[in-house]
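JOB MANIFEST
job_type = single_chain_structure
chain_count = 1
residues = 335
[input]
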Amino acid sequence: MPEAQAALTDARIDCLQYCNWSRKIFSQMREGGLDAVHVTVCYHEDFGQTVANLADWNRLFQDHEALIMPGRLAEDILAARQSNRTAVFFGFQNCSPIEADIGLVEICHQLGVRFMQLSYNNQSLLATGCYEADDPGITRMGRQVIAEMNRVGLVVDMSHSSDRSTLEAIEVSSRPIAITHANPSFWHPALRNKSDTVIKALAESGGMIGFSLYPHHLREGSACTLENFCEMVAKTAERFGIEHIGIGSDLCQDQPDSIVEWMRNGRWTTERDFGEGSADKPGFPEQPSWFRDSRDFPNIAAGLRDVGFDDESVAAVMGNNWLRFFEQSFVSARI
């Protein structure tokens, strides 16, 4: 068993948040027992704008050093636990920071980025987003970028990508990929949720899916019950194996509605693209009552026990599976 796994057998990891970061939110992470969180540092930004976001995070690490620390390797999660902090891992929800320059893949990794989505809803230079009518799959540049991501240890994330592109990414990548925040479409057929075919291929290749608590991805939306959510987790584990599932809450706490418009629209359209399930209600939907913020992670663990998970299985879903994936992924392939 790798060192971090052996030393930390009950890790609690959330593999996607994009909050309006503050001391309050970092304190709530500690109250919820979060050892690590993957945070979004880019939606539509180019390289220079993304570097500015990373500089903002450096200031957050300085201002809140008693609560958070940078995450680069799986071992940092153990260090965070030992110092009563949360390790923060960076990720992109789009490939825009590398622009059309494959050399920026390694630069972004050197700056601390550990996940990159190949597309965000729309067609990109690398892959097709889940909102497009046609999906021609991974592009020529996409294949080259995946190989470079594999080389430097930057995880391929296909959370917002279409099925064919995702299946091809799984096939092309020499390392297991991730879908950091989505749910199975057999439970709720949102555009962003994933088919059985995709989840099966992901699991068979050693990849991971993080279950989302974002209401547009939930059955019954904001009214989704904890029992219903945990039953979905149980059915997915039964179908595809418990080793490949975790949590990626997609929590967007304390963000103004202008942010969700930026997420959907960026600067690619002059029209308002409200996104799935929200055409009549622009802005962020209300979170389910049992998951308002990071303090509610114990509710999920309790809900999993209530639907029949034993302690080892609860620990796997709540973080140990992500810990193993981090340990396997956050290393360079270069000898």
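[summary]
The longest helix spans residues 311-329.
The mean pLDDT is 94.
exit_status = 0
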